[in-house]
Amino acid sequence: MLLTFGLSSTSSLPTCFISAPFVGEWIQPGLVDLITINNTSCSLKGTCISTVGQQDVKNKFIFYNEQTRCKRCVLFIPRHLNALQYRESECFDADDDNGRICGSITPDTVLYTLFRDNAESTPCPFEQSWYFEKNHQLSTSCQLKSFQHCFSSNTFQLTYNNRCPTNQNVQATCFAHFTDGIINYVVARSIDRQRFVCFSYTKTKRDEQSIPPNEVYLSADDTCRDLLTRESAIVLNVLPSTSHHQFESKTQLPEWTHGKWLTIGTNIVYINNTQFIMKTHDEQKILYDLRFTRILTSRRQHENAIRIKAKSLEQCSSIFYCIKIIYRSSSVIDLTIGFDEHGCKEGHLHHTLFKPSISSNISCPQMGTYKSSNTYRPSIPISTCSIGLWTLSLGCELTNKSELTFSSSCRHETVPEVQIMTSIKGICLASWRTDHRFQRTIILYDQTRAFCLIQPLKQMTASWIVSESSCTNLDTLSINVENSLRYSDNCEHYKQTSQYLTTNHSSIQRISYLLFCFLTVLLLCKY
Fold it and tell me: Ranges for the DUF7042 domain (predicted)?
């Protein structure tokens, strides 16, 4: 009686400390309530009163349950931050030897698995989709077809064949991945939190993450109670990588499409044989990530072009696109992207892409000088003049007919006495015609920036400078009399006046100096 009384008084119980990796709220498959473990107790087990074992055995704990007035040994087996397994003994009398109680736990003792509640997700252990052979031994015709790799590395989709009565595809988030010898275990939970998805596989080479295993053992129980029991698992034979071409096609694009490109809007585009990626200019955000699936056509009459079907991964579902790339020069291509659902007949994204270059082997079209009216507002940010007189000189350089000069002259808004003269130089990268109305030319300036030069096919009439994303697909509203540069004369007048133009940088220095002088005079007059 004295021993029973002593153990039932929590104030006289010896205490132990449960380490941090075990502390938290856990889900035990098959139980409704969560299991809570803190530093001194475990729900349903009781209060921790002792640890058992030598220094190398730190995970055996003796728990005393005041309601049943007995104690048991619990062996915790940490697998992952979010996965914990344990074996436990029967409940022994309070005066039984702790070592004998823990000794009753054997490898045949039932192994329970706990999953951390509200666990943080972790990357899934595969970098590509895994496809499975049809299992003829299963009685059901509704079978799992693949583990579909998703846009997020923490998520994958279980995709079933079309013989299932309803759409049974399940998206799941991985939250635990651990190994036991050469066997890998993965624990995931469906996005709707209605089921767990657990499977194991064997891979002898840990570094070859891109190579799928031969077999996957999928837990038949949605609660994953049989996580480590392969006898009751569904065996899925993985198709080898050489068979994946029927699911993920290979494409071979012409060399002229490859490389790093810039858009007129300063975005960056990467194209290779399998992928199209568009990023913001700082490369911090991906705007498009499209995987090529197959080439439709590669050439039309009078047009060096390629048409490609592609798909993007939005979460775990694919959106299909049609891409058209047209060759304009070795450093310029036209790009159009449309949705496949429109039959590849409409494009929703148009870009003229270019590669920065220090020289060009083409001559600027319709050489001469073009001038603006007094109300001309440039569509590109190249001058301090909001309104002024502008002159465009095409191919007037004696040494290089591919160069042009765009210059302006205006009075400073703050100091009208100051005349601002600005000049930038550019090169014609490519020039082409797509209809019977306009000649289209893309101009490179400031090393990585570009604009479109539009000219009527009728020689020596006018030019328009536009900053739209595509030189081919233009908004016709941007081409009107008010914003035109009218043809003035040939290059002779330019050669006489070019010596008086300064660069944008020197103009700024001149303005700063004149403003300094003007302010100095004001101060002297004041005092």
Answer: 121-234
What single-letter DSSP state applies at residue 55? T
Structure tokens at 57: 């055995």
Distance between CA 111 and CA 96 in Å, rounded?
23
Helices assigned H by DSSP within 198-301:
none
Burial of 440 (0-12, 13-18, 19+ CB in 10 A): buried
More confident residue, 285 or 41: 41
- In sequence order, what are the residues at sequence separation of 6 or more whose Cβ sits closer than 8 angstroms to the Cβ of residue 482? 373, 375
In the chain, the amino acid numbered 93 is D
C-beta atoms surrounding 347 within 10 Å: 18
pLDDT tier at 468, thresholds 50, 70, 90: confident
CA torsion, ordered 439, 442, 443, 447, to nearest 10 deg: -170
The SS3 assignment for 477 reads helix
Contacts 24+ apart (CB under 8 A), 231-234: 233/199, 233/200, 234/135, 234/138, 234/144
> What are φ and ψ of residue 57, in 5° steps?
-115, 95
Over residues 12-37, the mean pLDDT reads 85
Tell me the CA end-to-end span of the chain in Å, nearest whole number.
Answer: 106
Query: What CA–CA distance (Å, rounded) separates 325 from 305?
Result: 6
Strand pairing report for 130-131 and 368-371: unpaired
Beta pairing partners, 445: 426, 449
**CA distance linking residue 9 with residue 55, whole number of Å:** 29
pLDDT higher than 60, residue 162: yes
Confidence class for position 409, pLDDT limits 50, 70, 90: confident
Closest CA to 84 of 45, 62, 112, 52: 112
Element (DSSP H or E) covering residue 491: none
Question: Tokens in use for 223?
Answer: 């609660």
CA angle 484, 489, 492 (to 5 degrees): 135
Helical (H) or strand (E) element with 15: none
In angstroms, the CA 482 to CA 367 distance is 22
Position 122, amino acid: T
Please indicate, yes or no, whether the overall pTM of this predicted structure exceeds 0.90.
no
Torsion, CA 354, CA 355, CA 356, CA 362, rounded to 10? -70
pLDDT exceeds 70 at position 456? yes
